[in-house]
Design brief:
The protein has 143 residues and is an alpha+beta fold. Helices cover 50% and strands 11% of the residues. A hairpin with a 2-residue loop joins β3 (48-51) and β4. α1 (11-20) runs parallel beside α2 (59-70) and α3 (80-110) packs antiparallel against α4. The radius of gyration is 17 Å and the shape is flat.
Length: 143
């Protein structure tokens, strides 16, 4: 099993899941800024998992695959109804929380200064705060 990664990226999700499951894997640090990067997968981004001929990109898909394949019900339920709830929250986090955070990060530090649009940051913050309230309501009073 091989996991292609880059520091300070969503790659940590894939390696963290592999570690939690006690899996034997090779970590390949990939310079995503390099034009010569060699990453399996269709989008040339990390993380990428290669497992017995199967190549998967996108951190959430990798984590679900690892948990389903090697977790024996740990981290990801086997009941389809419970899976649907987990998938719902994964999709919500990716679309409603990460989207605004990525906009903020891009326009604050990632993009070259000439391409940054500081006016995009405040609306993204408002979107994030609105979305996080849904999660706060969901977990309120729960352990």
């Amino acid at each position: 099993m091989d996991i292609y990664t880059y520091p300070k990226s969503r790659s940590i999700r894939a390696t963290w899941m592999a570690e939690e499951l006690g899996l034997d894997y090779q970590c390949h640090f990939t310079d995503v800024m390099s034009a010569e990067k060699q990453v399996p997968g269709k989008n040339q981004k990390v993380p990428v998992l290669s497992d017995n001929g199967l190549v998967i990109f996108e951190s959430s898909a990798i984590c679900i695959y690892l948990a389903q394949t090697y977790g024996n019900g740990r981290f990801y339920p086997q009941d389809p109804k419970k899976q649907a709830i987990v998938n719902q929250w994964l999709a919500y986090i990716i679309s409603e929380l990460e989207g605004p955070l990525w906009i903020i990060l891009r326009h604050a530090v990632v993009l070259p200064e000439a391409m940054r649009q500081p006016g995009a940051i405040e609306p993204a913050k408002a979107d994030f705060l609105r979305a996080i309230k849904v999660i706060e309501q969901e977990i309120s009073g729960k352990t």
